[in-house]
Automatic annotation (TrEMBL):
PROSITE patterns: TONB_DEPENDENT_REC_3 (PS52016). It comes from Ohtaekwangia kribbensis. Keywords: Cell outer membrane, Ion transport, Iron, Iron transport, Membrane, Receptor, Signal, TonB box, Transmembrane, Transmembrane beta strand, Transport. Residues 1-19 form the signal peptide. It is found in: Cell outer membrane. InterPro entries: Beta-barrel_TonB (IPR000531), Beta-barrel_TonB_sf (IPR036942), CarboxyPept-like_regulatory (IPR008969), Plug_dom (IPR012910), Plug_dom_sf (IPR037066), TonB-dep_rcpt-like (IPR039426). The lineage of its organism: Bacteria, Pseudomonadati, Bacteroidota, Cytophagia, Cytophagales. Residues 341-777 form the TonB-dependent receptor-like beta-barrel domain. Residues 117-225 form the TonB-dependent receptor plug domain. Its main location: membrane. Belongs to the TonB-dependent receptor family. It is a multi-pass membrane protein. This is TonB-dependent receptor.
């Protein structure tokens, strides 16, 4: 019997040894500077096992049988590396050191405008894996919500349709955006309309967010941040991906992507088509979005030629008016005052009184829509001229055309350049009508860069020239008074803007640890606009700006895993179209000036990372709203002499265990205007006067600039293919104007989202993924944006605050098939 047990025990032990499972873990680094590489792809050749290096450059394979494996590692800009790893009696710890590739890659297109580890700038890189994990079909700002100092908002309350992002309190007009190095901001308003390129994240390889002035780039001046987006890069393997999402508020997203892989050792073709629909959280805030992306690239040793086209068609119901505070508070008496202040008729007033308190939309006309189509064409040519020289030239062209349609109640005919209409014994001076305000524009130009990198010196000469030609015009397509001509054009004006810039950047390594950086840019902007504006006022703008934007700094590697940096930058920015068009007669807006100090420290260990950054953004002549209006009632912005933003940004990551990891960031800031002159209008005791009243405020907070912004992502791997992530965002209170008046503010809020991701790798396809995103799981009632206006009359002050409520608990589910 003992012999039987002994034999059985030996057999069981042998079976256990035979079936013993091992793990393979390690890190991926740059062989030259030992920096970790985040987002490298690792595959066990001959199997379907693959993973991506994390924020620490770490990777791990579990449940591997004993044997010898071939580990294939790929990272853009580096040569592929295959490494043999033997698993027999212990787990394996592997360090992979990748060599920079001398084969031309798509990275050269954006390298001239991006920061790297030797650049003394404050930046965050978001890789493809992180983008796709959060990409359920919402606009790009909502994917960047977890980066430091970011605050996002959505008109419809769901992240689909019109969305916006502020970074360090700076709005979209002060955030420079490029796509593959090509300017994306609207040339006249300097705004960024992500709704025009829906689902662009599905075709994005990486995004770099630089905070502060950042490095020299193309397009408008960065007065708060830079968002540098790169679309799909070369993929040598054929693929196809189908993503389908569905969720609350009738939201659906379907996206099909494909790639041919490398054809005949030279050609790569990629494509994507997407369709997104949503009913929105706000009443009638529907979105019907279509987009596409196609590219064809030719690669031959030292040469790369790539043609890219992408764009979209959007039709969104307008939700940009907001919800009055009286409606949010369900105060009937205050709502009646709101209707009176707005001049609303009985139908509009009834809509206000009977709507849901958080989803009210003042628009009820069925075609109160924004309808716009925009296409982007890019051609990139890159050539390695010698071992140290690389040249890049890019051509681009973007046509766009669209309108927004609106129903207008009882508008004066004179406001449209029309004479009164006589019908019988009646003279009609006003009427209901439907109008369309059109924008048709063309934006084209080129960018270039010449890169030199050898030994201790890395130098870049770059720049570009761009021209914008835009027609603004309005039509009346229907009027209650029949003699109004059909499609009568009541205004037309043209804007022509030309932007030239040239910059030189140099990084010199005095030692292996000390690097100096100098970046000098000259930018010339000319802008002309002529014609008649919407309110029948004459437009006549002829502006010319010459800007010199120097930047300098140092980085010092305290040790192999610690880096400190400091930089000082000067940036200048031209006024936007409205600043010129709405300026009172005889007044010309001045350009803005920013002086930016950045100083930071970064330490990275095997399982932790910490970044700390101090910034001071000192403004001269910043343009702000004061409450003043011009002679046709349009709000105007005024240059304020001195204002500043100062803060500390902390960003960290911690790998608590093989299952737990945590990423977090917090920004603590002060954002002040040293002297601000508020303007309001007093209509007298009997509403028969008109007086402009000004009140001087000192050391007030800059509007929409919370003193605290924090984000957190707590990730837990439940088991091999299933992970859960708790995403938390805190935004401190914000003021709606620059008076620091608590009665004109947005309350602080904290929002928690929960994301589940489950993936399997069957033998018949690369991957099947199922993801679930539960937004606002604790049903926080909050508003993320707003505006205010007021006046005095009858011995009283009247104030109207409007807010943009965001959706309560809602969900999105996504199914992904990768072939």
């Amino acid at each position: 019997m003992y012999k039987v047990f002994l034999v059985a025990a030996v057999m069981l032990l042998s079976a256990r040894v035979y079936a013993q499972e091992f793990s393979m873990a390690g890190s991926v680094r740059d062989a030259k500077n030992n920096q970790v590489l985040t987002g490298a792809t690792l595959q066990l050749e001959g199997t379907n096992r693959a993973t991506v290096s994390d924020a620490f450059g770490r990777f791990r394979f579990d449940k591997l049988a004993a044997g010898e494996y071939s580990l294939l590692v790929k990272f853009i800009g580096y040569s592929d590396q295959s490494q043999k790893v033997s698993l027999s009696s212990a787990n394996a710890e592997v360090t992979v050191a990748l060599q920079e590739s001398f084969v031309m890659t798509d990275e050269v297109v954006v390298s001239a405008t991006r920061a790297d580890e030797k650049t003394p700038a404050t930046f965050t890189n978001v890789n493809r894996e992180a983008i796709q994990k959060q990409n359920f079909g919402q606009d790009l700002p909502f994917l960047l919500n977890w980066t430091p100092s970011a605050v996002v908002t959505s008109d419809a309350g769901t992240g689909v349709g019109y969305t916006g992002i502020r970074i360090r309190g700076s709005d979209a007009t002060r955030i420079n955006v490029t796509v593959n190095g090509i300017p994306y901001n609207d040339a006249e308003s300097l705004g960024t309309f992500w709704v025009d390129v829906p689902d662009i994240a599905a075709s994005s390889q990486s995004i770099q967010v630089q905070r502060g002035v950042g490095t020299s780039t193309n397009g408008g001046g960065a007065f708060g941040a830079t968002i540098n987006l790169q679309t799909n890069t070369r993929n040598d393997d054929p693929y196809a991906t189908l993503m389908s999402s569905a969720g609350s508020f009738g939201t659906f997203r379907n996206s099909l992507s494909f790639g041919t892989g490398l054809l005949n050792d030279h050609w790569v073709i990629d494509g994507r088509v997407s369709k997104i629909n949503s009913d929105g959280f706000i009443d009638r805030a529907t979105a019907d979005l279509q987009s596409y992306y196609f590219s064809a690239g030719f690669y031959s040793g030292n040469t790369m030629i790539k043609a890219i086209t992408f764009g979209g068609k959007e039709r969104t119901y307008q939700a940009w008016y907001g919800v009055p505070q009286s409606r949010l508070q369900n105060d009937t008496e205050a709502m009646l005052m709101t209707a009176s202040n707005e001049g609303w008729n009985q139908e509009q007033t009834n809509n206000l009184l009977t709507s849901n308190s958080r989803t009210f939309n003042p628009y009820t006309y069925k075609n109160q829509v924004d309808d716009y189509k925009q296409d982007h064409y890019q051609l990139h040519f890159s050539q390695r001229l010698a071992d140290a020289f690389t040249a890049n030239v890019s051509l681009h062209y973007t046509p766009g055309k669209g309108y927004y349609e609106e129903y207008r109640y009882n508008n004066k005919l004179a406001d449209y350049g029309l004479s009164p209409v006589t019908i019988g014994d009646s003279t009609i001076t006003s009427t209901d009508l439907v109008r369309r305000r059109w924008l048709k524009n063309d934006f084209y130009g080129f960018t270039y860069s010449l890169n030199y990198e050898k030994d201790k010196l890395n130098a870049i000469l770059g720049g570009g020239w761009n021209r914008y030609d835009g027609d603004h015009y309005g039509q009346i397509i229907w009027a209650q008074v029949s003699p109004v001509p059909t499609e009568y054009q009541y205004y037309f004006n043209n804007g022509d803007k030309r932007d030239f810039n040239i910059y030189g950047k140099t990084t010199y390594s005095f030692t292996d640890r000390l690097n100096a950086y100098v970046d000098l840019q000259y930018r010339r902007v000319t802008y002309t606009a002529t014609g008649i504006e919407n309110k029948q006022n004459t437009v006549n703008v002829d502006a010319d700006f010459n800007f010199f934007n120097p930047k300098a700094g140092v980085t010092f590697a305290v040790s192999d895993n610690q880096v400190a940096y400091a930089s000082y930058s000067i940036a200048n920015r031209e006024p936007v179209r409205d600043d010129f068009v709405d300026a009172p007669q005889g007044r010309t807006p001045k350009s803005e000036n920013l002086r930016n100090l950045e100083a930071g420290y970064k330490i990275m260990g095997k399982n932790y990372m910490l970044k700390a950054n101090y910034y001071l953004m000192d403004y001269r002549d910043q343009l702000v709203l004061t409450g003043q209006v011009n002679d046709v009632g349009a709000s105007i912005r005024t240059n304020v002499d001195k204002s500043y933003r100062m803060g500390i940004e902390l960003e960290g990551a911690l790998k608590i265990s093989e299952r737990f990891s945590w990423n977090a960031n917090v920004t603590l800031s002060r954002n002040k205007i040293k002297e601000f002159k508020e303007v309001y209008y007093d209509y007298g005791a009997n509403f028969d006067e008109y007086n402009e009243v000004s009140v001087t405020h000192r050391n007030t907070d800059i509007s929409f600039s919370p003193n605290i912004i924090a984000g957190s992502g707590l990730n837990y791997k439940i088991f091999k293919n299933l992970e859960a992530t708790l995403l938390t965002k805190y935004v401190g209170s914000q003021y709606l104007d620059n008076t620091s008046n608590a009665q004109r503010s947005i309350d602080a809020y904290v929002v928690n989202d929960l994301r589940f991701s489950y993936t399997v790798h069957p033998t018949f396809m690369k991957e099947i993924g199922l993801s679930l995103l539960i937004n606002n799981i604790l049903e926080e009632e909050y508003e993320s944006n707003g505006y205010t206006w007021g006046y005095a009359g009858g011995g009283q002050q009247y104030r109207e605050n409007y807010y943009f409520p965001q959706a309560g608990r809602n969900f999105m589910a996504m199914l992904t098939f990768k072939f």
